[in-house]
User: Fold this.
Amino acid sequence: MRITLSQLNLHIGNFEGNLAKMLAAVETAKSQKADLICFPELAVCGYPARDFFEFDDFIHRCQHSINELRKVSHGIGIVVGSPSRNPVAAGKDLYNSAYFLYNGETIGIQHKALLPTYDIFDEYRYFEPATEFKTIDFKGKRIALSICEDIWNVGNENPLYTICPLDEMMPQKPDLILNLSASPFNYAHAQIRIQIAKVNVLRYKIPMFYTNQVGGQTDVIFDGGSLVVSPNGMVFDEMPYFEECLKTYDLEEVVAGDRNHEQPKDKIQLIHDALVVGIRDYFQKLGFKKAILGLSGGIDSAVTAVLAAKALGPENVSVLLMPSQFSSDHSVDDARQLAENLGIQYDIVAIKPMFDAFETALAQQFAGQPFNVTEENIQARVRGTLLMAMSNKFGHILLNTTNKSEMSVGYGTLYGDMCGGIAVLGDVYKTEIYELVKYINSLPMGEGRGGVVPQNTITKPPSAELRPGQKDTDSLPPYEILDPLLFQYIECRKGPNELIAMGFEASLVKRVLRMVNINEFKREQAAPVLRVSAKAFGMGRRMPIVGKYLS
Amino acid sequence: MRITLSQLNLHIGNFEGNLAKMLAAVETAKSQKADLICFPELAVCGYPARDFFEFDDFIHRCQHSINELRKVSHGIGIVVGSPSRNPVAAGKDLYNSAYFLYNGETIGIQHKALLPTYDIFDEYRYFEPATEFKTIDFKGKRIALSICEDIWNVGNENPLYTICPLDEMMPQKPDLILNLSASPFNYAHAQIRIQIAKVNVLRYKIPMFYTNQVGGQTDVIFDGGSLVVSPNGMVFDEMPYFEECLKTYDLEEVVAGDRNHEQPKDKIQLIHDALVVGIRDYFQKLGFKKAILGLSGGIDSAVTAVLAAKALGPENVSVLLMPSQFSSDHSVDDARQLAENLGIQYDIVAIKPMFDAFETALAQQFAGQPFNVTEENIQARVRGTLLMAMSNKFGHILLNTTNKSEMSVGYGTLYGDMCGGIAVLGDVYKTEIYELVKYINSLPMGEGRGGVVPQNTITKPPSAELRPGQKDTDSLPPYEILDPLLFQYIECRKGPNELIAMGFEASLVKRVLRMVNINEFKREQAAPVLRVSAKAFGMGRRMPIVGKYLS
Assistant:
């Protein structure tokens, strides 16, 4: 039996586009003499479709795509993810299902049992869990169909769940496992995914074919990395990350498999590639081509500009250099140098005239008040307004350059440097950005200079340059101390006592946790964040604003 | 048996504050010779605590409050909501529980079975559903404990669920039902809640005591309206809306009850009262006193100012009048008149100097480009920056004045008129705001003038006044047509074909749905919206940004 995996970059709600991709893949699979082609979870509509699932019309269109795929299933089995209606009145209206189409018929359908409802996932909001588990007989083989999370409770050892779907199927003696996934990227996930696939295969002693989605869907990025695992637990193949792929495998070769085709998994490279795809797909799926951002001479905007140029092409990236009266000369020089290295268009607009106009307009109200964070914020908002004006006039999307450290502690101006359609670095801590820039500068780029990002941008102390001599460390602990603490609090959900027990200084813990918590109101209005860690701001982390806890 | 219901305004994560309120209530109940006092769902920590539940320390503190309440339970039963740990490894870590404390012991604990996971609710994200249902014997009575949603699947007729918790308990022959709720307000909800309570009571022929939370928690507002229902289905008592209340009832009197103490439920009055409480608690729970907003002379900002003055006192509300070069004279006059009627402080700051400074700064970039929405947005953002500057300098929270019609179709400027800590009218359609202003003007206010909002503000055609002669209807269908269509799409989740079948014009449907969907990126960064309908923007409506559906 020959099995094709089709790892696709789908687009939420783009039924025509998704169907066209699948129809083309079916044709290719047929030309490769495949018996069976397997698409990702919820492939007809894309993932995560969120509350679109509450619209009857949306479900209709999903069913229409299934009907169209069924029509081309003559001579080839097509396994594809789609919502399906729950015919029983009690329980949620929908199932998250895998359809098995063949010769113009639906020869089997398996619903998902384990519905992730944590972090960014809301599946129990829409779907009823499966309670029946039936293998499907196809061309002399018995197939265990499973959907994403269904393989993540091996032998019921995952504390989140109370059932192991494949255990339920094993009495029926399947010959292979198919898994349809929409399993989002984080920099540690590919390794864990392989581990889980292996544990399943070693438990059941049959091969697994695992198809994942690929590409960005606003904040959530899918990395692909679809898997074929031989019964001996070796990775017969791992598809590339961050790009579409179609391959056809011979089941007998996989069963006999004796090779380990895993890809290298370097954290910083993975983050880099994910962010490029995240930008590219955000623009492509919204129908935009051109980006703008503010280039300060600092490291965050420099890295954002590099990633944007890679994602969209330097000809589609413009930057504004917006020095304040407190900016150092080298800031403009460094920014200009980067723009030239990248070959992107830049303009210089000093913000003092607008700042002065605001100060004059508010002179009466502000009489006798000292210069404080208000004036810093006015400057940041003048910059935001300039960038949005360019964006509005020329049809750019504004890229936000805030990093995760700043976003955590609220070190940023709402409606100022927090403006933007997508926060490129909002899930990357400052210390990780230093690693990222090192990686970027190690790559050949442009005319092959030593590094595209100027050294001065990397070595100077971080500063918002909104008052004389300002440095980030005036308001914040050094990032080498701050970031590990944030990581433990945000990613690992350690409480204050656990953090202190880990060796963090008690007053620092109190201060930092308070900063994180009282700034929830800012994050509520932040741009969506490209998710690269296991716990990003946004839908994956839902916090009360008026909460009075550790604040 | 004497039963006290304590309807409390709790504060998420404010363990000390919530405990102090409950301890005081226990004292009062004792002084009223109560045998039993009943608090709301998850009262120890407030609702919705969201991902705070993922922190061990948070659960610890909940347990600490339970321990403290247990200590004062000598001579009085205390029924209180709290998360509790699931001792079984498989399944979610927590239960949403009702503790029954008495004489220093926990004499019973009932977990919640029906976990709302729709709209604003995410309970299955945190909690394992109950599978055991045991009544509790107390002072010769047998009590069926239930938590909020548990009574919303009477006889298993709610399609969302597959179990009816009270049906499970009835073989044990309970004498009464206690329900601990945190059931959020919407303008239709109190009526439905009474209906559900009656249906339960009539099915089981025993009385129900139902305690609800009250007060605002950012976007979500709780109305209280706790209920005592006699076995004949009559409402023995309904506690007031939007305020704390403690009352002690004699069980025998309730059983014999022959009275119907329901409150009037006028939609517009309820919305009015909810918004006042929503503002008040947002400020109080964040520790702020003073509000600022922009007063345009239009109806939305006028209504917001009135509500703010009621919520915070006129002495705590300031407004900025920020005429543009395109503002009509009467706009400033109308705004000034309202400020004087309300007795709130106002300042006038013309925006032209800042607007001119931006146009000059961008003259080179914008050379040869016509005046368009860019210039309108610059003006809106100058206003946003002025308001935020005042807010930063003097410690106000900026109130957002966007209405639901605008927010739906994206008729507003991100980082401009969309600025603000909380969107007061973001769940109120424009046509409802006209009803609201009529109600407001019917109330005695200030020196008892005919109406606090100037007639001219109400009667003139809505306009953003950002270009000469601009009217909302230049870009939008008339609100009398737009609002019913939005209601059907947003609240009722009708798809395009259903809307057309209802009589909406096909091209209008297409145009409006597209406007709603392509503006998801703006709502993503909008201020939290005070929720007064059954489907508000925010956590209750989760939509993809890059979705290509009806767009």
